[in-house]
Q: What sequence folds into this?
């Protein structure tokens, strides 16, 4: 049996992706609220409401997580 990961498993249940703050804490984000990301040199997630959040992941990692989320969302809608 696979161990339960609160952030990863809850993220899948509630339509979120898991990222990491600069302090090393895992967080769940709704990818629909992300407006854009930038690298300055830390990666900053900028939300629709103007909030900015520095994270540990690179731009490419964020992009991959959002694309994988969308892929899974699409597959679920076809099931």
A:
């Amino acid at each position: 049996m696979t161990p339960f990961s609160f952030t990863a498993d809850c993220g899948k249940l509630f339509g979120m992706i898991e990222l990491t703050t600069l302090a090393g804490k895992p967080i769940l984000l709704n990818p629909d609220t992300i407006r854009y990301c930038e690298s300055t040199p830390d990666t900053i997630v900028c939300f629709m409401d103007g909030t900015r959040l520095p994270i540990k992941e690179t731009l490419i990692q964020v992009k991959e997580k959002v694309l994988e989320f969308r892929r899974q969302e699409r597959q679920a809608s076809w099931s």
